[in-house]
Amino acid sequence: MPRRNEPSDDEPLAPAAIGAGSQTLMRGLDVLEALADEQLTVGELAEKVGLNKSTTYRLASALTDRGYLAATPRAGYRLGPRLLALGSAARDQVDLVQIARPIIEDLAALTEDTVHLGVLDADQALYLDKVPGRRRVVVSSRVGDRHPLTSTGLGKALMLDHDPEYWAARFDAEQGSDQRRWKTWRKRMADYQMHGRAYDLEENEDRIRCIAAPIRDVHDRIVAAISVSGAAHYMEDARMDALSGEVLAAAGRISVAIGHKLTGAAQRPKS
């Protein structure tokens, strides 16, 4: 039976309890994070984490013994095979729909519009989840539907990191080789790419507009996107511009929940 004020075996520790008196653990985590992007010698590692060389060496040696780090003579330390196994296990445990659901529910409640979650699948936007809005507007989409990339806000958001050659190939396949329309579409995509979000201006469904933003993983890759869709008369240009920040913020929260590290103005519209 646990003592008073001690957690039981099946009770998760609160963050404060984890950090209290665990300086060595925190330092070990600092070492792991310092090696996330590059291989470092003991001296370089010590400088990066703000510890002396002997302490850094002891921490690195212990982590190497457990397989969390690997050492190469003269080149220094790098992340080890045990972290690869843990990373794979963590990915298996991540359920994007489950993680995103409360966030897109909040976004739907805030905007009163329909919110979608989707991923890129075989050059189409696959809808994984949908939270209907509160307005008397029917958005004709269902979970499991696949929609074109070039005419949907969700699809455009999923393509923001792709090169123009991919954009052109998808445009030709989905909308035909109309050079005038392509130039207009390409110009809009460049603007969407700059602002980190995309619009659907009644291109996929009559009288329906939407704002979409990408979800990024730990490697800063776009792995999914969310969109807010509503009737065009509720989605005038000024409101779409104002809602962009909310959509980007929600996408950012989902990204962080799956391991992405936001930096500076990431996931915020640029002025």
CATH level 4 superfamily of the largest domain: GAF domain
Briefly note the structural class of the backbone: alpha+beta
Head-to-tail CA distance between termini: 58 Å
Number of domains: 2
Write down the overall mean pLDDT.
86
Described by the principal axes of the CA atoms, the overall outline is: elongated
The total of helices stands at: 10
What does this structure look like?
This protein is of the alpha+beta class. The protein folds into 2 domains: 15-91, Arc Repressor Mutant, subunit A (Orthogonal Bundle), CATH 1.10.10; 94-257, GAF domain (Beta-Lactamase, 2-Layer Sandwich), CATH 3.30.450. 45% of the residues lie in helices and 18% in strands. It has helices at residues 15-19, 23-34, 42-49, 53-65, 81-93, 96-111, 153-158, 164-175, 179-195, 237-257, and strands spanning 69-72, 76-79, 114-121, 124-131, 146-147, 198-201, 208-216, 222-231. The strands form 2 sheets. It has a 6-stranded antiparallel β-sheet. Strands 1-2 form a two-stranded antiparallel ribbon. A hairpin with a 5-residue loop joins strand 7 (208-216) and strand 8. The longest helix has 21 residues, at 237-257. Residues 1-21 and 264-271 have low confidence and may be disordered.
